[in-house]
Specification:
Elements (H helix, E strand, L loop, with lengths): L5 H10 L3 E2 L4 E9 L3 E13 L8 E11 L5 E3 L1 E2 L7 E2 L3 E4 L11 E5 L3 E15 L6 E13 L4 E3 L10 E2 L6 E3 L14 E2 L21 E4 L5 H9 L3 H7 L10 E2 L6 E2 L11 H10 L7 H9 L16 E3 L3 E2 L7 E2 L8 E3 L22 H4 L14 E5 L4 H4 L40 E4 L29 E2 L5
Parallel strand pairs: 19-22, 23-25
Antiparallel strand pairs: 1-2, 2-3, 3-10, 4-5, 4-9, 4-11, 6-10, 7-10, 8-9, 11-16, 12-14, 13-15, 17-18, 20-21, 23-24
Length: 475
């Protein structure tokens, strides 16, 4: 019979708040019942489900970790693959996507019907499986996600942006109508770029093109999320992944296992390629591809020349802040009519601003700087780290999701997923991360790098940690 200690659970809950500032998801009142069911309240802001454009919804990706009270080590918790074994009170429902190679590493909670507004203290219960005999502490993690529906879309903006995708040797955007293979040539109907420096290689059907449905993190990985991740690793895994300091608006202090994110709501910068992949594997997510980035930004609508994530070519530089360093950190700059706002241009704000800083009550897609589907900060703030399509290593990526488990000694703390390019890349190497790219620009880039068809960094093998590199996961 499984022995799980409710006392240890209650003690742990009293010590660690289930609260992620970066995405406003709050998980509280966690309790254990029947030695296999975790029940809690969930809240988050500005939830939606709509049956008109953009015909999508938001959701929260939920996963659990358990600590063995004998060894002190944390591990991923398997959940029941039967939806009926879980429950969510109105207006929510449980959704299991079936993408895990084995078991169920997590699940989504989302609105069950059309509606908008805040979700407040709604009860959710999750059934755990495969728990070995022992006494455990548990943590529940929630990451706010946005559904990106299956749909055709266009790549490129009329060959205006650097490295823009085209349909053959023309200035026309390339039309993605399925997840089928894509050939590269100058002939009409094939994908192409006018410069060989940015030209992709042919992509097999297994490489994610952006046509299929995915869920995308609404915000970049936050400093709070990354600290939670490192603090729950083993000591040798944490030694590979720990990032501390106070440069360029990073503010993480302490040492494992009590690292502290002093500005938890800001994006996590200084992420090397192996750091980024390790976080995604541990969270049972995956990286996005070069093509998926544009789909998430543009959706199914016609491209605009030189457009940013909010769909126009007009931009305001967020260079003045109010409530700096708080959970309400935001820009006070007046936004140009018909345009959006982003943190860029190496201005007086020398680092990233709070995740979703431009979204306020009654903001539009433009004034919030949002993508077509409601994903935040895809232009500016920090670079989006993606899987490239420039070589055989990158297009060998199949879109498989992480399993919640990282490598152990003798090479601890790395993602170990098949098809993920260069997961063992050294954070000290400028050439070990074959297969990655960057999209969307950052706080220290010119406006052109923020254009959603700009592919100036369509390939970068640099595995090192820099103050402008971050990212987010898909599922």
């Amino acid at each position: 019979m499984q022995k799980i200690s409710p006392f240890f659970l209650a003690l742990f809950l009293a010590l660690i708040p289930f609260f992620l500032f970066g995405n406003n998801v709050q998980i509280s009142n966690v309790s254990l019942t029947n030695d296999s069911t975790i029940t809690f309240n969930i809240s988050w802001e500005n939830s939606w489900r709509v049956s008109v454009a953009p015909n999508n919804h938001d959701a929260v990706w939920l996963f659990l970790k358990r600590r063995d009270c004998a060894s002190g080590q944390w591990s991923h918790v398997e959940l029941s693959s039967t939806i009926a074994n879980h429950s969510a009170a109105s207006p929510l429902e449980i959704y299991i996507d079936g993408k895990d190679a084995s078991g169920t590493k997590g699940l989504f909670v989302r609105r069950s019907a059309d509606g908008t507004g805040n979700i407040t203290n709604t009860v959710v219960s999750l059934r755990m499986t495969a728990l070995p005999v022992g006494q455990y502490d548990f943590r529940v993690f929630g990451i706010e996600m946005v559904q990106i529906p299956q749909d055709s879309f266009l790549l490129g903006d009329g060959n205006i942006s650097t490295g823009s995708f085209t349909d053959g040797n023309s200035s026309n955007p390339y039309y993605v109508t399925s997840e089928g293979p894509i050939a590269v040539s100058s002939a009409a109907g094939n994908i192409y770029t006018t410069s060989t420096s940015y030209r992709p290689v042919s992509m097999p059907a297994t490489y994610p093109k952006g046509y299929a449905e995915v869920y995308c993190m609404k915000h970049e990985i936050s400093q709070a999320q990354y600290v939670d991740f490192v603090n729950l690793l083993t000591s040798d895994q944490a030694a590979s992944r720990q990032i501390t300091g106070t440069a360029n608006r990073l503010n993480i202090t302490g040492t494992w296992p009590v690292l502290v994110a002093n500005v938890p709501h800001r994006p996590m910068s200084f992420l090397g390629w192996s750091d980024f992949l390790a976080y995604l594997d541990w969270s049972a997510l995956r990286p996005m591809t070069d093509l998926e980035y544009e789909k998430i930004c543009r959706g199914p609508i016609i491209p605009v020349a030189g457009e940013f994530a909010w769909g126009t070519s007009l931009i305001t530089d967020a260079n003045t802040l109010t409530n700096d360093g708080t959970a309400n950190e935001q820009s006070s700059n007046a936004i140009t009519a018909g345009g959006g706002i982003a943190n860029y241009n190496n201005n007086t704000i020398l680092g990233p601003i709070r995740c979703g800083f431009a979204a306020k009550a009654a903001t539009s897609r433009l004034t919030a700087g949002s993508t077509y589907y409601g994903v935040m900060d895809m232009s500016g703030n920090i670079w989006e780290t993606v899987v490239s399509c420039r070589n055989a290593i990158s297009v060998g990526f199949t879109g498989n999701v992480g399993d919640g488990v990282l490598s152990v000694s003798p090479g601890p703390g790395f993602a170990n997923q098949p098809s993920w390019p260069s997961p063992l890349a050294s954070v000290g190497s400028s050439s070990a991360a074959a297969g990655k790219a960057y999209r969307g620009g950052s706080w220290n880039e010119v406006a052109a790098r923020l254009q959603i068809s700009d592919r100036a960094l369509a390939y970068s093998a640099d595995g090192r940690r820099f103050n402008e590199y971050g990212g987010r996961g898909l599922r």
